[in-house]
Amino acid sequence: MAPTTSSATTSTSSTITLHVNGEKYTLPVDRRTTLLDALRERLDLTGTKKGCDQGQCGACTVLLDGRRAVSCLQLAVAAEGREITTIEGVADGERLHPVQQAFLDLDGYQCGYCTPGQICSALAVFEEHAAGWPSAVTADVRPEAGVPQLTPEEIRERMSGNLCRCGAYVSIVQAVARAAQSSDAQSSDARSSDARSSDTRSSETKEAAA
């Protein structure tokens, strides 16, 4: 008689908790399920698009802990406990993110299929650039050279993993550049606000001490 095996050793399913756009979702999944399929088929977050399903087109790009990832090559079980941001979580309620607004204003899309992945990639580009990460076209990669300027050439290189079959690349680069300027302005305002708050607290402390 053939030996029996327990269901614990033959099961290919796991119950996982995914943190998506600030919400927690607990669901059973086959361990072979990709994050892309879990988002689309199990959580009904269809903004993340399935393109090549081979990690080559970038249509399924999402953010994992703030870094971009092609979700078709990421297993859902491997994403447990990480902060996942999809296109549905980019806007602030009814208020569009500057990247989304720039894509609308400058026609950074045609059919729109690749647009969610393009926008998620652009958000990651800003973080990578601010952190001083060089690209293949960065002329001076020495740490003392500082953060490279986010030129059109830099944007094209950093966004090159996201393909647009409609060929809207010129408008995409313009949209990313405009959003980058908006992000810089917001960061500058935030730093100025923090500095003013710090000065105010310092003055109040001195007055209290006096």
Helix content: 40-55%
Question: Which strand order do you get reading across the main beta sheet?
Answer: 2-1-5-3-4
Q: With helices defined by DSSP (H or I, 4 residues minimum), what is the helix count?
A: 6
Instruction: Round the mean pLDDT to the nearest integer and report it.
Output: 88
State the total count of DSSP E strands: 5
Largest pleated sheet: 5 strands, mixed
Q: Could you state the order of secondary-structure elements as H and E? A: HEEHEEEHHHH
SS class: alpha+beta
Report how far the terminal alpha carbons are from each other: 90 Å
Task: Please give a handful of descriptors for the protein shown.
210 residues, alpha+beta, 5-stranded mixed sheet, 40% helix, 13% strand
Description:
The chain has 6 helices and 5 strands; from the N terminus they run H-E-E-H-E-E-E-H-H-H-H. The chain is an alpha+beta fold and 210 residues long. A 5-stranded mixed β-sheet has the order 2-1-5-3-4, sandwiched between helices. Strand 3 and strand 4 form a beta hairpin. Helix 4 (115-130) crosses helix 6. It is globular, with a radius of gyration of 22 Å.
Itemize the secondary structure elements and their pairings:
Layout: H1 7-10, E1 13-20, E2 23-30, H2 35-42, E3 61-64, E4 67-70, E5 83-85, H3 98-105, H4 115-130, H5 152-158, H6 169-209
Parallel strand pairs: 1-5
Antiparallel strand pairs: 1-2, 3-4, 3-5
